[in-house]
Design goal:
This protein is α/β, with parallel strands linked by helices. It is built from eleven helices and twelve strands. Helix content is 51%, strand content 19%. The longest helix has 56 residues. 26% of the residues are buried. The structure holds adenosine-5'-diphosphate and magnesium ion.
Length: 362
């Protein structure tokens, strides 16, 4: 059965109220009639309505003040003003102040009234959605600006830390230098997280944010490896690469794909225990180029696997490590989707994890 439209009719003249009630078919409308603003306000405490039909001259309010007090009570409910012969101007003012419509009681028929009510509800819905979207966009914009502004001081601090550690500002002990470099490495993790947040914002806003050039994935991987190798060596993790001699070119956004491999390698190194092994393989298939990143880490259960590409999703391994936001793989998926590529994961608990990234060959 169709949901009925619930109407609060605020009208002190019994004859007028009867007339309006007659016009609206009972099978489509549930009408509650009250005769004053006070009664209206009472009933709105306990009942909700889809629309308010409001007479402007009531025993406890007249003209615009009636509308204003209704609006304060239920700002989300659309209001249609009912007017007599002589208050058109006031009704027009009420519309300017946010009422959805006004109709003349003396000059209304059933279909006109029904239509006015439905348009009022639809228009109000639209207004509310637009309001929500505007605040959502403002919040996102604010987040993006904030994260962007957080980056610069961090980069500056890291430069100073490196200078200090290199003794450029005077002699310090090796212990001090090591400590400073540890702070720099923590800052780098923070920077990577900020970069992920910014990139998520960028790709959510515009799926076409990729700038494609013809490139070899191997070249992008080599750059990423340079960054990750020192960290892997520190943890006695070996990284083996297998690149074919006949790799095909792909169309890729080099910076965005670098973020993908950085995130995948970062996870592999982060979750693999000391002494483990990671293999990086590029496999040219018929029409695509695939990169495999295999690790000897803890693996994942099927349940975990089903959620890893969701925003903020962290599995058992992820929750054990404090530096992480659960955005890495979400971002990878967004970027790969923007390339019309595929990203997938094979993993079993206790036997390690393999991520597979495929892009169409150029
Ligand atoms: N190589 C991996 N081995 C085991 N678990 C992984 C691996 N890569 C990702 N995961 C799981 O997937 C989750 C989501 O990864 P990601 O989006 O990069 O978030 P984060 O690294 O911030 O935790 C991780 O928290 C982890 O539980
Ligand atoms: Mg990660």
């Amino acid at each position: 059965m169709l949901n009925k439209t619930t109407v609060l009719l605020v009208e002190d003249s019994v004859a007028d109220a009867k007339y309006v009630q007659q016009l609206l078919p009972k099978q489509k409308f549930d009408i509650v009639h009250v005769r004053s603003l006070a009664e209206a306000s009472n009933i709105m405490e306990t009942e909700s309505f889809d629309v308010i039909l409001l007479d402007l001259s009531l025993p406890d309010g007249s003209g615009l003040s009636s509308f204003q007090s209704m609006k304060e009570k239920g700002s989300r409910i659309p209001v249609v003003i009912l007017t007599g012969l002589d208050d058109d101007e006031t009704a027009l003012m009420a519309v300017k102040l946010g009422a959805q419509d006004y109709i003349q009681k003396t000059d209304v028929n059933a279909s006109f009234l029904e239509r006015s009510i439905h348009y009022a509800i639809e228009r109000k819905d639209l207004e509310e959605t637009e309001k929500k979207l505007a605040t959502y966009e403002q919040r996102e914009e604010f987040m993006a600006t904030l994260t962007h502004d957080l980056k610069n001081p961090l980069i500056g601090t890291n430069r100073v830390l490196e200078l200090l550690a290199e003794q450029a500002m005077g002699q310090i002990s090796q212990d001090h230098a090591d400590l400073l470099l540890q702070i720099r490495d923590s800052n780098k993790i923070l920077l990577a997280m900020i970069q992920n947040l910014l990139d998520v914002y960028r790709f959510e806003k515009d799926m076409n944010a990729v700038v494609l050039t013809r490139t070899y994935l191997k070249d992008i991987l080599s750059t990423c490896l340079k960054d990750i190798l020192p960290i892997a060596e520190n943890r006695k993790i070996t990284i083996t690469t297998e690149y074919p001699s006949n790799e095909k070119l792909v169309h890729a956004d080099v910076l965005a794909m670098r973020r993908v491999f950085q995130n995948l390698l970062d996870n592999a190194v982060k979750f693999t225990p000391a002494g483990g092994a990671i293999t990086l393989r590029v496999a040219p298939l018929e029409n695509e180029v695939c990169v495999e990143i295999q690790d000897s880490g803890p693996g994942m259960s099927d349940e975990e696997k089903s959620r890893i590409f969701h925003r903020f999703s962290q599995g058992r391994a992820g929750r054990k490590f404090s530096p992480g936001t659960g955005l890495g793989l979400f971002l990878c998926k967004k970027i790969i989707d923007a390339h019309n590529g595929k990203i997938s994961c094979e993993s079993e608990e206790g036997t390690g994890t393999k991520f597979l990234v495929c892009l169409p060959a150029a």
